[in-house]
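In the design runs reported in the main text, the only information available to the sequence generator was the tokenized backbone. The following block is the verbatim input for one such run; it is reproduced so that readers can re-run the procedure and compare outputs position by position.
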């Protein structure tokens, strides 16, 4: 048991130490390159905008260090400090049924985690984001969104937890396979219903009204063989001045969504180029690949949990003396990130490769110069640093650094 505890503590310390070290590198590197605009962006991004991006990046990373420490402290509180045991005892007082005791235990863990994270979310929104001019959310909207999110999480999460715990109890040694099938089916269902039933709870979506832009986008979709159920504009400016565009939904329910801020930032050719990039993810089957990877990883995790479910050392080594299916679920998915965090660069590398492929697709279907100019505007308006620490970027970033991405597009256009 002591070896399990020591391995867990070591994994927590290594993951936290690695996060803090990478954060220190990022802060130092960005601050060191704050004084001058990188040569590739001279004439496109002002020194003032470059310095704002540097300061914003440093502030976010510093705030992220606090979040990392809070995350680790919360995991220790739940595990080695006896939090799960205390909550399990409380749940046993409330319910006689082991199933509902388990549901209550996981609900309490989730609620406490959410409450601990709430002050950080408030400070990030009304402190950090507001300080740099990005936040448009009011306190009333923040509270409303939080309550909506809590109700939605309960409405979806509690029945799912009950189903998983029932499967763990009733399906014998193969429970993990049945659980994975149920999880995969529900995940796909949520992808289908998200655009029409869930997203409108938080934002207003209106059909894209610009006829020339609609015609341009329809022409792009026609020549790339892509079908969508509609083109919509989302009122992102109600909450933030950050801009974006994305696809949502699955199969025939796919929608193309533009933030209203994005349409204000970019010209029609630039909007088309950004959309072509997003189309590239679908045409290169990145979405399917990521889903397959996610499903396979979840299957492997559930199988791994199945091997630990009846091992006393698993519970005792992580500070739990009230073994249960719910406690096993909570322990496993709390401990797992500490052991897998060092492998984060693998998924980041895969994501960056997909971004390059999507950029190549966009450059083939539109003008590379339009995507370059769109990206420069988005880097500027979203205050994205142009000079990330290479190691920090390789570890975390799902997108290539700005200079490398622009150079890749320009090199492809010159060929």
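Verbatim output:
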């Amino acid at each position: 048991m002591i070896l399990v505890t020591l391995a867990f503590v070591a994994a927590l310390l290594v993951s936290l130490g690695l996060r803090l070290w990478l954060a220190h590198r990022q802060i130092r590197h960005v601050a060191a390159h704050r004084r001058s605009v990188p040569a590739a962006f001279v004439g496109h991004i002002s020194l003032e905008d470059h310095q704002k991006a540097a300061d914003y990046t440093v502030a976010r990373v510093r705030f992220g260090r606090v979040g990392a420490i809070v995350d680790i402290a919360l995991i220790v509180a739940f595990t080695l400090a006896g939090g799960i045991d205390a909550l399990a005892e409380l749940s046993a007082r409330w319910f006689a049924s082991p199933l509902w005791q388990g549901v209550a235990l996981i609900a309490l863990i989730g609620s406490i985690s959410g409450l601990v994270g709430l002050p950080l979310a408030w400070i990030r929104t009304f402190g950090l984001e507001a300080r740099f001019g990005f936040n448009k959310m009011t306190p009333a909207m923040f509270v409303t969104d939080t309550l909506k999110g809590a109700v939605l999480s309960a409405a979806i999460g509690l029945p799912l937890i009950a189903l998983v715990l029932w499967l763990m109890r009733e399906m014998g040694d193969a429970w993990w396979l049945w659980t994975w099938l149920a999880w995969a089916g529900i995940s796909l269902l949520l992808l289908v219903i998200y655009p029409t039933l869930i997203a409108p709870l938080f934002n207003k979506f209106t059909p894209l009204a610009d006829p020339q832009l609609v015609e341009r986008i329809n022409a792009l979709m026609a020549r790339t063989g892509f079908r969508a159920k509609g083109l919509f504009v989302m009122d992102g400016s109600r909450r933030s001045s950050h801009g974006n565009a994305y696809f949502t939904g699955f199969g025939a329910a796919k929608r193309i969504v533009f933030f209203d801020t994005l349409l204000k930032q970019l010209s029609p050719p630039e909007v088309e180029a950004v959309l072509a990039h997003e189309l590239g993810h679908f045409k290169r089957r990145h979405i399917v690949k990521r889903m397959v990877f996610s499903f396979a990883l979840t299957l492997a995790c559930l199988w791994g949990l199945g091997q630990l479910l009846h091992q006393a050392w698993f519970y005792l080594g992580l500070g739990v003396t009230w073994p249960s299916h719910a406690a096993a679920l909570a322990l496993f998915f709390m401990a797992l990130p500490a052991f897998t965090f060092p492998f984060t660069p693998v998924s980041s590398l895969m994501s960056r490769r997909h971004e390059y492929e999507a950029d190549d697709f966009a450059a083939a279907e539109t003008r590379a110069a339009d995507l370059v100019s769109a990206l420069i505007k988005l880097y500027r308006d979203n205050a994205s640093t142009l000079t990330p620490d290479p190691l920090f970027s390789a570890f975390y970033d799902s997108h290539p650094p700005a200079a490398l991405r622009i150079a890749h597009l320009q090199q492809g256009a010159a060929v």
